Amino acid sequence: MNKIKSISLFLVGMLSIFCVYAQEASYSGTVTDVHGEPIEGATLHFNASSIYGITNTEGAFEIQNIPLGTYKISIAHLGYKKLDFEAEITENASDKNLILEGDYLSLQAVVVTGSFTSLEAKNTATSVSTLEHKRLKQIYPQGTASLLQNITGTFTDASAGEVFTKVYTRGISAAAEDDLGWYYVTLQEDGLPVSLVQHSYYSPDLFHRVDLMTQRVEAIRGGSASITAMNAPGGIYNFISPGIRNEFGGEVQVLSALQHSGNTLFKVDGVIGGPLGSNWFFNAGGHYRKDEGARDVDFTFSKRGQFKFNVIKKFDKGSLKLHGKLLDDYTNRWTGVAATNWENPEAAFGQNFNSTSLLMPEFTAAIPDSRNLQEGATNSFNPAQGVHAKDLAFGADFFQDLGNNWSLQNLIKYSNKNANWQTSISNAFVSLDNPLAYFISGASFPIGEVVFRDTQSGSEIARVNNAGILAGEPAEYIGNGTLPNDAIMGTSAWYKENKASEWMNEFSLHKKIAQHNFTGGLALGFSDTSLFTQGSFGYVTYEPNSKMLQVSLENPNEPTILLSDENGISNYGGLFFVNAEAQVSQIAAFMNDRWEITDRIDVDLGLRYEDIRHKGSKDRYAPFSQDGGLDGDATTAYDNGILAPTGDKDAFDFNYNYLSFSGGLNFKINKEASLFTRLSKGNKAPELNYYFNNFANVPINKKGEVQKITQAEFGIKYSLSDFSLTSTVFWSQLDNIGNANFEFDGDTNSIFYTPILFNTSRTLGLEWEAVYTPFRNFKFLFNGVLQNPKATEWLVYDAAGSVAVADDTTVDYSGNTLPFNPKVMFNVLGAYQLDKLSVHYKWQFMGKRQGNVANAFRLADYSISDAGIGYQFTKHISANLLVVNMFNSDGLANFFGANSFGANANGATSEFIQNNPDESFVVVPVLPRSTSLRVNYTF
C-alpha cells in the first residue's frame, strides 16, 4: 500500500512538473511602420521581467519560453514612437500587425548622452538632438563636422575638409576660433572622449571618421555637459556604435563621387553582425576610401580608413561590451584663397573660390631634424601626406543590475595616438619688391641677382635684380622671364609630430530610493603626450597651380649662394620650433539626483568636482651656431638659421580644480508635450596650447585661467502624429577668455604669439527643431537658431608687427558683435517617399558673421542646396544619387585677415581697411559641388 502510495505521489509530482513547463508559450508577430514597411531591430520588452526580443530584417519576432499570463509590453526603435500595450500570452500567441508611428525628432527614443540615467528624450531637462541611422545614410561623407551641421543650434565650419574643423554652440566659441576648433565641446564614441587633450593642429576630429559602424548620433548643447563631460561644458557629440543583432546580417556600401574639379572619390563601407551563441553578439566593420580632393591638387588628398568592432555578452541582469578601433588614415586640409573688394569679396590673382587650393605641390625632401643635428637626423617631408593619423583603441562597457534597485556601470578605454603633419601653412602674397622674399631664406645679405628655377625641370623661370629694395625701389626683371603676379607665396613647410597614450575610465553607481534616482561616480583620464613642430620656408610660385622654386643668388664674379635646396625648401627649421611633452591627468567626482516629484514633474540636480593637472616641459632653443650653417658650406644659405634646442628646459606643473553645477526641471504637460528649464555653471580648464604656443624661451611661471561658462535655458518638447517640435530659449556667458594672435616678425624672420588677454562674451538666442508631415509620404524638417552674440568686454593685443614690446598697445572692442557667430542659421529639409522611391532636398542658410572682433569686415550670408534621390530595387539592393552644394555656392566660411605673411583677422581694423581699400585678403570658401552615387547591399 505504501509502495502504491509512493508511486502515486511520484506520478502526481511528475505531472505537476510537466504542467508547470506546459504553462510556457511563445509570442510572435511582425512590427511595421505606418506604410507597412518592416522595421528591423525593434526591441520588445516585457515590463517587470527580463523577457525581450528583437525584430529581424522582415520585422518579425518570436520569443520562446514565456510563462502564461498577462503582460505589459513596450516596443521601441530609434526614429519611432514607443508602443505600449497589454497582451495576454496564451499558447502560440501572436500579433501579426504591430505598427509604430514615426518619431521624427526621436523624442520618445531613449538617450544616454548628457544624462546619468537612460531616459526618453522628451523626459530629459536637456537640449538633446538625435541623428538616427537612416538619416545618416542620406548625408554625403565630408567629415564629422559636416555631418554635425544637421544638428540644430550647432555651428560648424567644415571648409577645411575632414580635419582642422570648428564646432561650437550658443556663442561659446572664442578659443575655438583659433586653431582648436573643438575647444569647448567633446567628441565621443560610445560615451567616452575620442581624445583627452587638445592643442594646435591636434583636435579630436583627427581621430574620428564616420562610416556604417555609426548607428546614431546624440548631441547635447551646453547645459548638463557641465557635469557629464570631461572639461567640455559647451556640449557633447556622441557617436554610438551598433548594438545587439539577433540574426546574422550586415550591409556593404559602395560610393563613387565626381567632385567640382573633375576629381573622384571612391569609398567602400561595410558592417556585419549577429549572434555568436549563448547570448554573445558581435558587430564589425569600417571603410576604405581614396579621395582626389574637392579642389585642384596634384596628389591624392585623402586615403585609407579604419576598422571597428564590438563584442557583446548579455547576462540575466547585465551586459559586457568589448570594443576596439584601428584608424590608419591620411588626409589634408584646405587653406584660404585670396580676395579683393572688402564690401563684396571676389577671388583675386587668377584664383577661384571653388577650385583653388594654394597648397604646395607634391615633392619629397629631407629636412634636418633640429632635435638631433649632431647625429645627422632628418625628417622626411612631403606635403602630399597632409596628416597621417593613427589611433589604436580598445575598451569595455560593463553594466550590472545588483538588485534592490542598485546598479553599476563602468566604461574603460585605452588608446595610442599618433598624428604626423607634413603640409603647408599660410599661402600669403609676398611681392618681389618686399625684402622678406629674400631675407626669409636665412641668408645674411641676399641682394643682387636672384634666380628662380623650376625644381622639376631645372629651367630658369625668372631672374631678378633686387639691389634697390632696401631703398624702397622695386625689384627689376633681368631678361624676359617673369614670376606669376610678380610674387612668391609666403608659406611654410609645416612638420609636426604629435603622440599620445591615453587611458580613461568612468565608473558610476546608481541607486533608486522611492522617487529619487541617485548617481555617483568617478571619471578618470590620463594622457602622456608629446609635440614637436618645425617650420621651414618654401619657395613657391603665387598662382592657383603652384610650382616649387629653386632659388639662388648669382652675382657676377661672386660665388653662387643657394637660397633654397633643390626642392625649394629654405631656412631649414628657422621659422618655428617647439619641442615639448606633457602628462595630463583629469580626475572628476560627480553626483546627481533625479527626483520624480510627481508623475509629471522631474527635477535633477548635479555637481561635478574636477581636478586637472598639467605637468611637462618645453625646450628652449636658439639658432644653430656654426660658420657656413649646418653643412659648413657658406654657399648653402638655406641651412644657416636652424633653430635647435639649447639643452635647457622650462618646466610646468599646474593644477586646475573647480566645482561645476547643473540643475534642471522637466514638466510633463501631457503625453505629447513637456516643458523644461535648466541652469548650469561650468568651467573650462586651459588646453596644452597654453604652454606650447606661449612662453618662447622664458620660464613658464604662470598657469592659465579657467574659463567660466554660465548658461540658462527654457524649452518645450512637443510630439503629435504629424508634428513634432523642440524649442529652447538660452542665455550663455563666457568669462576669462584667453586671446592671443599668431604673428610674424619681419625683423627677425620668426613667428610668435602675442601675450594673452582675457575677455568676456554673452549670447542670447532661440534654438528650434521641427518636423511636419502634412500628408502621407512627405516630411518637412526645419531647424535653426536666432541669436545675438556680444563681445561684452574685449581687448586685443597689438604687437605692431614685431616681437619687441616697446611699441605694443591694446585696443578695446567691448560691446561689439562676437565674431564668427551668425545671428541667423537654419536648415530646411523636404523628404518624399513613395513605395520604393525616395527624394529629398535640403537648404542650408548661414547668416552674416563678423570676421573679427573689430567688426571691420563682415562675411556675407550664403545658402547651400543639397538634393538626393534613392530607389529600392530589391529587398537587398538600393541606390542613392546625392548632390552636395548643387548650385556651387561660393559662400565664405572664414576670414584670415590681410594677405601678408603672419597676418591675422584682428589686424584688419576699420582704419586698416580704410587706408588699404585695394589690399587683398584671405578668406576660406565652403566646399564646392560634389555628386555621388551610393549603392547599398544588405543581407
In the CATH hierarchy, the third-tier topology of the largest domain is known as: Maltoporin, Chain A
| Count of discrete alpha- or pi-helical segments spanning 4 or more residues | 7
Structural class per helix/strand content? mainly beta
Amount of helix: under 10%
Largest sheet: 22 strands, antiparallel, barrel
Q: CATH superfamily membership of the largest domain, which one?
A: TonB-dependent receptor, beta-barrel domain
Examine the secondary-structure arrangement and name the CATH architecture of the largest domain. Beta Barrel
> How many beta strands in the DSSP annotation?
57
- What is the CA–CA distance across the termini? 65 Å
**How much beta, percentage-wise?**
over 45%
| Quaternary organisation | single chain
Number of domains: 2
Give the CA-based shape: elongated
Radius of gyration: 31 Å
SSE inventory with pairings:
Elements: H1 2-22, E1 24-33, E2 43-46, E3 52-54, E4 60-67, E5 69-76, E6 83-89, E7 93-100, E8 110-111, E9 119-120, E10 128-131, H2 133-136, H3 144-148, E11 154-157, E12 166-169, E13 185-189, E14 192-193, E15 216-221, H4 225-228, E16 235-240, E17 249-259, E18 264-277, E19 280-291, E20 302-314, E21 318-331, E22 337-340, E23 346-347, E24 365-368, E25 378-381, E26 386-403, E27 406-431, H5 436-439, E28 449-454, E29 460-465, E30 476-477, E31 487-513, E32 516-538, E33 549-553, E34 561-562, E35 569-570, E36 576-596, E37 601-623, E38 643-668, E39 673-684, H6 689-692, E40 707-719, E41 723-739, E42 742-745, E43 750-753, E44 757-772, E45 778-793, E46 795-798, E47 809-812, E48 816-817, E49 824-834, E50 837-846, E51 849-850, E52 858-859, E53 862-872, E54 877-884, E55 892-898, H7 910-915, E56 921-925, E57 930-938
Parallel strand pairs: 1-7, 13-16
Antiparallel strand pairs: 1-4, 2-3, 2-5, 5-6, 8-9, 10-15, 11-12, 13-14, 15-16, 17-18, 17-57, 18-19, 19-20, 20-21, 21-26, 22-23, 22-56, 24-25, 26-27, 27-31, 28-29, 28-33, 29-30, 31-32, 32-35, 32-36, 33-34, 36-37, 37-38, 38-39, 39-40, 40-41, 41-44, 42-43, 44-45, 45-48, 45-49, 46-47, 49-50, 50-53, ...
Protein name: Outer membrane receptor proteins, mostly Fe transport
Family: Belongs to the TonB-dependent receptor family.
Subcellular location: Cell outer membrane
